[in-house]
Amino acid sequence: SFETLFSNENSSVLKQVEENIHKGELFKEDLLLNIFLDTPILVDVTIIPLQLEKGEGLLSLLIINEFSHNHLEQILHHIEEQIYKAIEHESTLVKKLQIVCEGIEELLNGRTVSKIYIRENNNHKQLQMVMAQKYGLEEPYIFRRRADIQYLNNLIDQAELNMYENIDYHRLDECTRKVIEEKGLTKYCTVPIENHVNNRIGMIVIYFDSIVFDHLERYKAFLHKINNLISLAYIYDQKLREISFLAYNDVSTGIPNRLGFMESLKELEQKQIYGLIHIIEPSEFAEKVENAANERRGFHRSFFKLKNYCLHSS
Fold first, then answer.
1. How is the chain split into domains, by residue range?
2. Which residues 6+ apart lie within 8 Å of 101 measured at CB?
3. Which of 17, 142, 275, 304 has a 20 to 30 Å separation from 83 between CA atoms?
4. What is the pLDDT of residue 309?
5. Can you give the pLDDT at residue 205?
6. What count of other Cβ atoms lies within 10 Å of the Cβ of residue 83?
7. In the prediction, which pLDDT does 314 show?
């Protein structure tokens, strides 16, 4: 029966299926298919009712496609919508990357774990990792050991859209290892991330089991669009950083301007670091410099007088 074949979560849809069959109408829908001793997976189902001769009853021809284009398009649209909202609200880059991770896992019914390695400011010396928020990684995991950074940079530079049969647990961070062991994931794939000028800025790693994601070619267009969304979020974040730098720093020297200086004071105050600061006007500054110069000249004159006195005395 349909109840045995498909998950109970489809109950409302299955009632509609039976009605369509009795009406002799074709039915096409995404349904959760039961898998023996495993989590149901979303499939594309086409049900064609067939009338037996002499009204002896109805048969149903089921065509099950394990890949749902409709579901994929819905997930992609949802990710795009969330990314643009995050950009509009000036959310952090980490938040945007978490949206992507959560979308990838939703696409594959939670039977995967995805994470994103991203370079900071095109700087190969700074690397961070982002996972879906549900794994408790509120902030990005920042790699500090030089060996880890070098290893990951090599992976990013050499990464291709490819699947791998074995997971190297020795190279996994503790958070990732714990999650994929709990889910029993055995394979992974890598997806390079490039910016608008085709420079490598990071890499997506997706861990999965033997049932889902085996046919990577089906997801190439989806992953290409995901790359574009990450690149957009990354570039936008870079531009915000540049604008922020120009707002708080002097363009010619790069040192903090008055606004930047006041922001630094606010940060110190939040850390409960207090002190006395005297802000001088430009005219006063010139006076201070002149006084300091005079004092220095006076010091040199006194020094030479003392030196000559010592020489003559000896």
1. 2-66, 70-247
2. 114, 115, 116, 130, 131, 132
3. 142
4. 46
5. 93
6. 23
7. 47
- Nearest-angstrom CA–CA distance, 209 and 212: 6
C-alpha pair distances (Å), 287 with each of 277, 283, 294: 18, 6, 11
Q: How high is the pLDDT of residue 102?
A: 93
Please list the alpha-helical segments (H only) found in the chain. 2-5, 11-23, 69-88, 93-107, 146-158, 174-183, 220-248, 258-270, 282-313
List residues bridging with 187 in a β-sheet: 208
User: Could you tell me which CATH class the domain 2-66 is placed in?
Assistant: alpha beta
Q: Looking at residue 277, what is its pLDDT?
A: 67
3-state secondary structure of 234: helix
Residue whose pair of structure tokens reads 């509609």 in the numeric block: 16
Judge contact between 53 and 77, C-beta under 8 A. Answer: no
* Side chain identity, residue 102: E
Q: Residue 273: what residue type?
A: I
Taking the C-alpha atoms of residue 193 and residue 16, their distance in angstroms, rounded to an integer, is 43
Query: How many residues can be counted in the chain?
Result: 314
pLDDT tens digit sequence for 278-293: 666 666 656 665 666 6
**Helix H or strand E encompassing 184:** none
How big is the chain by its Cα radius of gyration, in Å?
A: 32
Angle among Cα 116, 120, 126 to the nearest 5 degrees reads: 95
In the sheet with 38-51, reading across from the earlier edge strand, the strands are: 27-35, 38-51, 58-65
Which amino acid makes up residue 161?
L
Helices (H) and strands (E) in the chain, counts: 9, 9
Look at domain 70-247 and name its CATH class: alpha beta
Q: Which residues of the chain have pLDDT under 70?
A: 1-3, 9-10, 35-39, 52-58, 66-67, 122-123, 170, 210-215, 276-314
Residue linked to tokens 């004159």:
301
For tokens 């996972």, name the residue. 131
